[in-house]
Design goal:
alpha/beta; globular; single chain; five-stranded parallel β-sheet; 11 strands; 14 helices; about 50% helix; Rossmann fold; two-stranded antiparallel ribbon
């Protein structure tokens, strides 16, 4: 009975978060759903989308709804690691004595928007991604922990490639999800224009706080996963590797490189959260299938056969799901 109440409360909180976000963000329901899942699960999101589709507004509105500090880092080729993490500066106190003081960078926030992360040099990207992984910053042998919950939404513009530094596969792997933000439909575009004519500010109200997010994360971590479902999820990730003798035919035909073990971890962790959002206290095959594309699309590389047949990464993942389902 206690679990039932907790599950109801969990899904009720998420419903309220979505309701408030609708005040500021038009459409993009799949994006909102998956961003909420990632925040609760403790993962980070790589968001691909053209400029002006509401990426910044989404994160800023999330900050208001979750009562969490928000910061935005605009990545440029001349951005240095210290511009992200912070640095030691020498200051004079009231007595005229010189002291070394650590000035925190914009990464010290609960919600961080890393805008156009592929515009920064690999050195700065690495510093950013290290903080994402470790949740701490080390400067001059001194470590500073970031406040929890900590969430990074990094954006990439799929159109402009000149003057960019594409993230290596090993660094892309650190993102729980890769989401693709599509251009809004005409009716949605009209709603966006009407909304911004009234005010450019976010109007969403706070629903929960950081401590509640951490409690929800703890509840999700305890969601049971049946052995058959776990086997299906791990088989799906294993089937992205064409070099395996037992790999499915679509992997051998269309995949160049497969996903890492992090993909299986992300799939199960996020599926637990999705299960609770839908009012269930166990992970289903449907949860795995629904999250396979966000988890896998940046972790596998398709080959020329797929390109020649005009198949996207998502198309190939769909084929992998079908074949894995048949073989279970």
């Amino acid at each position: 009975m206690e679990n039932t109440e907790k599950i109801y409360k969990f899904s009720d909180y998420v419903a309220k978060i979505k309701s408030e976000l609708k005040k500021d963000v038009v459409g993009q329901q799949d994006i909102i759903d998956n961003v909420i899942i990632a925040i609760i699960a403790g993962g980070n999101v790589l968001l691909e989308g053209v400029p002006g589709v509401g990426k910044t507004r989404l994160v800023r509105s999330l900050g208001q709804v979750l009562s969490l500090p928000f910061s935005r880092i605009q990545f440029t080729p001349d951005l240095m690691p210290s511009d992200v993490t912070g640095t030691n500066v020498v200051e004079k106190d009231d007595n005229g004595k010189l002291n070394t003081v650590f000035r925190r960078g914009p990464i010290f926030a609960n919600l961080v928007l890393a805008d156009e992360i592929n515009r920064a040099t690999p050195k700065t990207q690495s510093a950013m991604l290290e903080v994402m992984q470790e949740h701490k910053v080390t400067i001059a042998n001194k470590t500073y922990k970031l406040a929890e919950p900590f969430f990074v939404l990094a954006t990439e513009n799929p159109i402009e490639q000149d003057g960019t530094y594409p993230l290596p596969e090993a660094q892309m792997d650190r993102f729980m999800f890769k989401l693709v933000m599509k251009f809004p439909e005409v009716q949605e575009l009209m709603d966006i224009v009407n909304m911004t004519q009234i005010t450019m500010d976010e109007t969403a109200n706070a629903v929960i706080d950081g401590n509640t997010i951490l409690e929800m994360r703890a509840l999700a971590s305890g969601v049971p996963v049946l052995d058959d479902v776990l086997l299906y999820a791990t088989n799906l990730v294993a089937n992205t590797h064409p070099e395996r003798e037992t790999a499915v035919s679509s992997a051998k035909k269309y995949v160049k490189y497969g996903a890492s073990p992090r993909a299986a971890q992300a799939l199960i962790t996020s599926a637990k959260v999705r299960a609770l959002i839908n009012g269930n206290y166990n992970v289903s095959y449907e949860d795995i299938d629904a999250l396979a594309r966000p988890v896998l699309r940046h972790r596998i590389k398709i080959n020329y056969n797929a390109v020649n047949e005009h198949l996207t990464v998502d198309d190939v993942i769909g084929l992998l799901i079908k074949e894995t389902r048949r073989s279970k």
